[in-house]
Design goal:
- The chain has 604 residues and is α+β, with helices and mostly antiparallel strands.
- Among the domains are: 111-199, Trypsin-like serine proteases (Thrombin, subunit H); 215-311, Beta Barrel (Thrombin, subunit H), CATH 2.40.10.10; 318-421, Pdz3 Domain, CATH 2.30.42.10; 438-558, N-terminal domain of MutM-like DNA repair proteins (Alpha-Beta Barrel).
- The chain has 12 helices and 32 strands.
- Mean pLDDT is 81; it is low at 1-34, 41-71, 79-83, 85-101 and 577-601.
Length: 604
């Protein structure tokens, strides 16, 4: 069955942020992509620029009687953030009969004036030629005021921004905005506007509770099809842990049937009381489904804002760092000495997580902060609902401690673990702006990243390197896959001109940890020859004196301002303690294709 993919998001979202749906006839799985929505105006017709610009529109033992009771249900925590208008509300306030906004009064409602149109100029890095940027392009989206002279929008609306402007409803002036924080994993960005005139005669929005199924929802924004504000209505269809296409992460999401179109991204969704219950950010497109839009709930928004307030920057959502397997099979539970229908099996532990010091393969996690974990990897959620175990982890902040109840070899115990942000061997986004690069005698080295894979296309990357990027884990913090992306032809590198997209493993016999380490090894080398060892035992050797003499002319011939990115000019500090394990073949990599693709296995 064909699935129609809209053109609102980048290829990396297609590859990594797919959501698996099952059709009602035959239960055959369909892989479709969730699309982010903001409208684009392209200022270049070149194919490479267009590919990039189609981008979007994270041991103390106890006796068994101390195990948590079965009835604990998880309630979303209405965290407080007074400065940004996030209000703490009790259950009585949730159930109260507030004054509802009638459709006839919607046009005159004051809260519509808090929704603004965003105009962004983007200049994305050129990952194939990392010393330069691509041609700029523009897009429009939506945003809304939240108090303390701040606005919220989607991170993909202001990705790689060079200029951001906003315009109020009914105003003909545009005001320059500044991006204060950008949360890629949760697809939220925080903006500020310094001009006093912009804030005159407007009131920030009030955040409401997490809605219930079939609650009415109104989406407001500035989508394609006109310049004035647009309002669409629908109901809440589903609330569950959802794949976030832009950040390649899984967080709580609200599915609605109200229309969400390119340009709606970053706009608020309201309940009948005129309270904001979330941020519109993506839509699902296929021939088998329609009117499936997604809203970032206020619980995720609150987490983002509190993180920013507490740390002065956004640090991201934490992860547990384990690969878990469901325990639905009774024989499997009996073999693991799990006597009740509960728990998930620890299959793998990330080497860079704190879990590596606490958990072992074969442990069964039966509780998280005294909330029982079911054999399907779910926990109780509100009344008569269950939700993915990952939801509990996403309620924490980086550096927080969680208490796990585990069964190890038939014995129950409790243990504490520190939750931190996940370390990606191959990053989904480049946070520092320009990618790192190092040019040695025309050999261009750069870390492998998902944007680079997207730009180069999978065919030119090669199956072995692509498999390593998809399924390998970082063995230590700071590890990178460094590749030779291309060779700038010169007589000093004769015979190597056709090399490209190959992983460099060693330099003069020393295993390479990351690109900064490679630059340090080259700078401190006093040998006559520079020897680069690549995958499959391929070797490139250069004479050190010839390299020094040719470097400046190569840079001049190709119009390159510097032989390395600015971050590599800083002194190299090796923060990695002890000897690191040797390079793993793909067959020995911590995560396999089967483990990623199976319904029974998922990362916590």
């Amino acid at each position: 069955m064909a699935v129609a993919l809209s053109s609102f998001t980048s290829l990396s979202s297609v590859l990594f942020s797919t959501v698996k749906f099952r059709c009602s006839f035959g239960q055959r799985p369909i892989i479709s992509s969730i699309r982010c929505n903001h409208s684009h105006r392209l200022s270049s017709s070149s194919s490479k620029s267009n590919r990039q610009k189609e981008g979007a529109a994270h041991k103390k033992q106890h006796s068994k009687d101390e195990r948590p009771s079965r009835g604990n249900a998880v309630e979303p925590q209405p965290t407080s953030s007074k400065a940004f208008g996030i209000l703490r509300r009790n259950k009585e306030m949730f159930d109260s009969k507030d004054q509802q906004v009638e459709p006839s009064d919607l046009q005159d409602s004051a809260f519509l004036n808090a929704v603004v149109k965003v105009y962004c100029t983007h200049t994305a890095p050129d990952y194939s030629l990392p010393w330069q940027k691509q041609r700029q392009y523009t897009s429009t989206g939506s945003a809304f005021m939240i108090g303390d002279r701040k606005l919220l929008t989607n991170a993909h609306c202001v990705e790689h921004d060079t200029q951001v402007k906003v315009k109020k409803r009914g105003d003909d002036s545009k005001y320059v905005a500044k991006v204060l924080a950008r949360g890629v994993d949760c697809d939220i960005a925080l903006l500020s506007v310094e001009n006093d005139e912009f804030w005159r005669d407007v009131e920030p929005l009030t955040f409401g509770r997490l809605p219930h199924l079939q609650d009415s929802v109104t989406v407001v924004g500035y989508p394609l099809g006109g310049d004035t504000i647009s309002v669409t209505k629908g109901v809440v269809s589903r609330i569950e842990v959802t794949s976030y296409a832009h950040g390649s992460s899984d967080l709580l999401g609200i599915q609605i049937d109200a229309a969400i179109n390119p340009g709606n991204s970053g706009g608020p969704a309201f309940n009948d009381q005129g309270e904001c219950i979330g941020v519109a950010f993506q839509v699902f497109r296929s021939e088998e489904a329609e009117n499936i839009g997604y809203v970032i709930p206020t619980t995720v928004v609150s987490h983002f804002l509190i993180d920013y307030e507490k740390n002065g920057r956004y640090t991201g959502f934490p992860c547990l760092g384990v690969l878990i397997q469901k325990l639905e099979n009774p024989a499997l539970r009996a073999w693991l000495k799990v006597q009740s229908n509960e728990g998930v099996l620890v299959r793998r532990v990330e080497p860079t997580s704190d879990a590596i010091n606490v958990l072992k393969e074969g442990d069964v996690i039966v509780s998280f902060d005294d909330v029982r974990v079911g054999s399907e990897g779910t926990v109780p959620f509100r009344t008569n609902e269950r939700i993915a175990f990952h939801f509990l982890i996403s309620q924490k902040f980086s550096g927080d401690t969680a208490e796990l109840g585990i069964i190890r070899a038939g014995s129950f115990m409790k243990t504490k673990i520190v939750l931190n942000s996940r370390v990606h061997l191959v990053p989904y986004h480049i946070d520092e702006g320009q990618p790192s690069y190092l040019i040695i005698a025309g050999l261009v080295f750069t870390p492998l990243s998902e944007p680079l894979i997207e730009e180069e296309c999978e065919d030119s990357i090669g199956l072995k390197l692509l498999a390593r990027a998809r399924y390998s884990l970082a063995r230590f913090k700071g590890e990178q896959i460094v590749i030779l992306s291309q060779v700038l032809a010169n007589e000093v590198n004769i015979g190597y001109e056709d090399m490209g997209n190959q992983q460099v493993v060693k330099f003069n016999g020393t295993r390479i940890k990351n690109i900064h380490h490679l630059a340090h090894l080259v700078d401190s080398c006093e040998d006559r020859y520079l020897r680069f060892e690549f995958e499959d035992s391929y070797v490139a050797v250069l004479e050190r004196e010839a390299v020094a003499g040719a470097s400046s002319s190569i840079l001049s011939d190709y119009g390159i301002p510097s032989g390395r990115s600015s971050d590599l000019s800083k002194p190299y500090v090796d923060t990695l303690e002890g000897d690191q394990p040797g390079n793993q073949e793909f067959g020995d990599s911590p995560v396999s294709n089967f483990e990623i693709g199976s319904d029974g296995l998922l990362w916590a």
